[in-house]
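Help! Submission page says 'invalid entity' but I think these are all valid:
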Amino acid sequence: MSYPLFERHQALLDQALRAIAERGYWSAFPESPSPKVYGEGAAEAGKAAFEGLQNKPFPLTLPGAEGSIGAERSPYGFPLGITYPKVGLDALFAAIAKAEPAWRKAGPEAWVGVSLEILARINKRSFEIAHAVMHTTGQAFVMAFQAAGPHAQDRGLEAVTYAWEEMRRVPAKAYWEKPQGKNEPLKMEKHYRIVPRGVALVIGCNTFPTWNGYPGMFASLATGNAVVVKPHPNAILPLAISVQIAREVLAEAGFDPNIVTLVAHAAGDDTAQKLALRPEVRLIDFTGSSANGEWLEQNARQAQVYTEKAGVNQIVVDSADDIKSVARNVAFSLALYTGQMCTAPQNIYVPRGGIDTAAGHLSFDQVAQALTESVQKLLGDPARAVEILGAVVNDGVAQRIDAARALGPVLLDSQAVVHPQFKDARVRTPLIVKLDAKDDAKYLKEWFGPIAFVIATDGTGESLEIARRAAVEHGALTLSLYSTSPAVIDEAVAAAEDAGVALSINLTGGVFVNQSAAFSDYHGTGANPAANAALTDAAFVASRFRVVQHRMHV
Amino acid sequence: MSYPLFERHQALLDQALRAIAERGYWSAFPESPSPKVYGEGAAEAGKAAFEGLQNKPFPLTLPGAEGSIGAERSPYGFPLGITYPKVGLDALFAAIAKAEPAWRKAGPEAWVGVSLEILARINKRSFEIAHAVMHTTGQAFVMAFQAAGPHAQDRGLEAVTYAWEEMRRVPAKAYWEKPQGKNEPLKMEKHYRIVPRGVALVIGCNTFPTWNGYPGMFASLATGNAVVVKPHPNAILPLAISVQIAREVLAEAGFDPNIVTLVAHAAGDDTAQKLALRPEVRLIDFTGSSANGEWLEQNARQAQVYTEKAGVNQIVVDSADDIKSVARNVAFSLALYTGQMCTAPQNIYVPRGGIDTAAGHLSFDQVAQALTESVQKLLGDPARAVEILGAVVNDGVAQRIDAARALGPVLLDSQAVVHPQFKDARVRTPLIVKLDAKDDAKYLKEWFGPIAFVIATDGTGESLEIARRAAVEHGALTLSLYSTSPAVIDEAVAAAEDAGVALSINLTGGVFVNQSAAFSDYHGTGANPAANAALTDAAFVASRFRVVQHRMHV
């Protein structure tokens, strides 16, 4: 007998299983916000739903609630005015403990079926979530729709699929018959039960609450764990909506909704640390700063900890067919969401002697100029610029731009852009500073935000060696190479594999280094300090459950 | 093009892949020491090879060797007189670093092919290794042959098989084509390279150097890591032979043999800690005391740490068809290798009001008596007894027996047995002490050695609750139940799954609770303090490698 919600989504799961086996292009949730896909009126209804949430308590009843909390402010310049239940941790964990036994016993098909139903319902609320993400992260609307909606849902589905793939390979039972020479064989029946680890904690980040939050949340839920979601204090709403949906589905399926809970808290308090050290917490998924991620890795010893932290993403420019298409592609990567993606490039290495192109040799300055001109062209029209840039997520980014101006000759200054629609939005264009390879104290750390360095090196050999070492020592999620030389490409592949960083080669069209597609691109590798895990591989899911057997003679 | 050693063993690997999918009975390496299986003269040749190793330096050339070390003493009463190279760690790790690049690049088929060839050659030296294990651990010969030979080799093969199963599911490359509405689709080719984590450290134990050592050693080697083997100071030889074979195979296959190295050291020094904290070490497999295992988990933060530690194994006696067959089975489990197996039972819970059997009600004392009589009968003949008991592995065990005598009424005293062949062997029969459920301060810890407690409880409900809580709080690898009641069996299954401990039900024949068969029984669960990992599941192998991708347009 199969579980009803599992049956409902089995065809989708089968497609997803093929997708993770092949890792070609596949997507379950359409990225187009078109009414043809999501229905007439869906966009308007989603916007209205978001507006209806503002300036009131968020409709979520949680155990251990004692008062309320919430001070989210849109990067587009207004407070959301939404409050959330403030929960006492002891009461919360007591309620979770009550909810766990039935969920533990329900088994993989129930866990996966419920997870898939939650994702399907989250997808239906993509417009509402898009507005929630736009006004907590600063992402422009279309990006918020795609990255925080269908792309994030795909990442969640990918995690469920890997979890199912690992769980289904453990047989429910086995018949064991051992020959005993001339005597009767020994005969046993063995039963293997998949059991969850315990409570899973998901620590969300400000910039990608759903894209970075769903993989851990769904990997843990699909393996039978209870999940406590702790959003960033300025990006609570997108995860609150997700938790609300999860609780609805759990309740409808006959489970205690406290299997998925939300802990909203005020900025600067120690809620994350307190949660992370609870003995009940056996799994933690974290996205955020290296300092906080390393603290978790060092201190939350009772838990398996999956972290995505800071890094230094880099571009090595060796040679090119057409510098304009290189510059266009790189400019978009620098500008997209104001360089606030964890995958956005920061350091661009160019030989000080220049590079060869199909149109002849270009000096270092010509390469740099092509890049700055491309950024200017891309962002010349404010109305179009704000749809690429979105808004600055917090004051730290604006301050960092100011600090980075002093690092070296400014090739392109960062400018404020007036948003046609939101006059108080903080919108900034990229800052590009020229540095020399020897300035490594300046560029070998993450300058989070729209800050890029064009760095003069002795040649591509030095560029690759700096890039390799930077990834090994400081971490990196992406590396990009432009080269027409097969030998250089081979060298870059070797350096990337050595440093454990994903490499994109000669991106000049509609794919950008900061984009990572679910079911095909591994996001992070776990092989350098930027992350200790990857989205998504077997290692990301296999330790979230255990197998307990019993055996008897037959 | 396939890798030659991979091709050579591919048929075996295919069988092993089927075995891990089904987890029924399967074994690659025959457990019978018969000349029909291992060849005429194999037993004699193995014994001679072992004798030829004694009282001289072990033939192993290692980088960074500076002097020699080694003071192994047979539990059967004589020094082995074998010395091993003492290696300087800096020089050793420098040599490993030189060896790594070619091995890293060789890829999964080479790693798996080399691993399988090593196992095949280890199997050919099973007799030699059996003597080495007998005279370092104290296991009796036949057990040493089976458990440290074919059974350990099966566990090694199981780890290689799981590693291959996880690696083969990562496609080498993918074609990605994303539709763009009316425009040309985006087309990319993506390559996924499996890269190892770094250097793997295997910390061996005194009692089962190969059975507990091979899984980590082969899981790490088969995923492309270099492996440093650090044996227990009194059980170096079995792993030294294994390392010697691994180095031979590596060299013949054209790799630098320093991919597998041995660090022998003197008892009581800090070599293990120094190795565990080396930044190069990214994987650690440990079997041993809870104190040392927990130290590693707490301190070796740069590494993924897999531990098997101490626990309290338990038997719950509720009811039985035939008390004699129950007692016979339990007696053997208590006596086998002097209770020095990590899976050996210690606490036997019996209702103080006695139990029902097919032959009528038996009082607590009658149940205890059946057990003590079975032990006496099993071990009545010294010549037979020593083949079951083997020898006491170290002085601590003998001292612990003395301490345990004082805990309560002695139901059966431990006795010294004179070994017909080795007059200085320390051979001891089991001690059985009667305790009450309230004496939990006495029995809720591991009394490593031939020490068992028959504990009077208020009934099976209390027995199961004590057993459950003991496993949760103190760890357990095995739990055993005797009951004729389906309801009690269900309760025990639920308690075992809650406590994350493998349960054996009504073992009265030729299977014993301390036995765990590769390819079928999971050894440990990772779900209670006795172990943070299981032999072998996906979680045991999936984090030993990473995937690094590169992508470009096509």
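Support: the input was valid. A stray whitespace character was the problem, and the output above is from the cleaned input. Chain B has a mean pLDDT of 97.
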